[in-house]
Design a protein that fits this description.
This protein has five helices and no strands.
């Protein structure tokens, strides 16, 4: 089955959030505390076992001191470039 555009965007957003977490040197535990969600939730989201809601994405972005709008824009750009 072909992946939908929205699924690709969500995967791109999750990848951007993970990349930013790693670039900032944050553990799952530290980010979870900052984002006010559980550590397993961060792990499951990054490993594709769970799809985050908009609220969770916003909390994670806030925990990373990042703009979710910018993260979504980057994810969209990568999808458009890959065709």
């Amino acid at each position: 089955m072909r992946e939908s555009y929205t699924d690709k965007i969500l995967q791109g957003v999750v990848a951007q959030l993970k990349e930013l977490r790693l670039a900032k040197g944050l553990s799952h535990e530290t980010l979870a505390k900052k984002a006010k969600i559980t550590r397993p939730a961060i792990s499951h989201i990054e490993n594709g076992k769970r799809k985050p809601s908009l609220l969770v994405c916003l909390r994670i972005a806030e925990g990373l001191d990042a703009s979710l709008a910018v993260i979504i824009s980057k994810a969209e750009s990568k999808i458009k470039k890959s065709g």
